[in-house]
Design a protein that fits this description.
Order of helices and strands: HEEHEEEEEHEHHEEEHEEE
Number of domains: 2
CATH class of the largest domain: Alpha Beta
Radius of gyration: 20 Å
Low-confidence stretches: none
Shape: globular
Strand content: 25-35%
Number of helices: 6
Oligomer: single chain
CATH superfamily of the largest domain: Glutamine synthetase/guanido kinase, catalytic domain
Distance between the termini: 44 Å
Helix content: 25-40%
CATH topology of the largest domain: Creatine Kinase, Chain A, domain 2
Length: 254
């Protein structure tokens, strides 16, 4: 029996829901839905024009509907009256194959048929930059080898602490925050889990970092190469394949 989002809204005092999906460029697309309308949206989904959101569609295609996954619900730690939901795209009664989340769920199903599950963790890198995007945010972050620079890390303490505190509140179990290889670049790590949950959390993480950076008068970017002369952004992915409770990738001899 799926969770009832209408009841959850009342118990958690959520006033609005962001029903979201990711386009083929990794950009979040959403509609803001008042809690009084979430019952209908949970059943039938929120309507979107796919061609307007960088999906492989034309204006002649039918609208698609984003059906939220109640298990993905995240109450925004910095604005608790809003709940974020990952969703699966449907069109004409069928899943939209171009939906990245649908693609992942299809692969999860294929693995399950073979008796396996996949778990994953990510190490997300991002730059903190000026509001106009022309430079890194910290003009004193100038070391030729800035990786793990404690001073530059602590100059952004208030922002990084707020992001990490949010992850603690959400139960992600963050365990490391560091200055990365480029000037103005940072990385944050949290526990691995099943690959769908990690994918949803990775998506939300980028939204969260950008939102909190804006609160602090800065911008955050996950662009692969925002500055030509600096190391680009990456995202290390840690993948493991499990048979019941056993990690098939684990080599106990090493």
């Amino acid at each position: 029996m799926p969770k009832n989002l209408s009841n959850i809204a009342k118990s958690k005092k959520i006033k609005y829901f962001l029903i979201s999906f990711v386009d083929l460029f990794g950009v979040l697309r959403s509609k803001l839905v008042p809690a009084q309308a979430i019952k209908e949206m949970q059943k039938n989904g929120a309507g979107f024009a796919g061609f307007a959101a960088w999906l492989d569609m034309s204006p002649a295609d039918s609208d698609m509907f984003a059906i939220p996954d109640p298990d993905s619900l995240i109450q925004l730690p910095w604005n608790e009256e809003v709940g974020w939901l990952a969703s699966d795209l449907w069109m004409n009664g069928k899943p939209v194959e171009a939906s990245p989340r649908v693609m992942l769920k299809n692969q999860i199903k294929s693995l399950s048929n073979e008796g396996y599950t996949m778990k994953s963790g990510v190490e997300c890198e991002y730059f903190l930059i000026s509001p106009d995007g022309s430079s890194i945010a910290d003009s004193r972050d100038t070391q030729s080898k800035p990786c793990y620079d404690q001073s530059a890390l602590m100059r952004q303490y208030d922002l990084i602490k707020e992001i990490c505190d949010c992850m603690i509140t959400m139960g992600w179990n963050p365990y490391q925050n560091d200055h990365e290889d480029a000037n103005g670049q940072f990385e944050m790590n949290w526990d691995y889990t099943d690959c769908l949950t990690t994918a949803d959390r990775h998506t939300f993480f980028k939204f969260m970092v950008k939102s909190i950076a804006e609160k602090h008068g800065l911008r955050a970017t996950f662009m692969p190469k925002p500055f030509e002369q600096l190391t680009g952004n990456g995202c290390h992915a840690h993948i493991s394949l499990w048979d019941k409770k056993k990690n098939k990738f684990l080599d106990k001899k090493r």
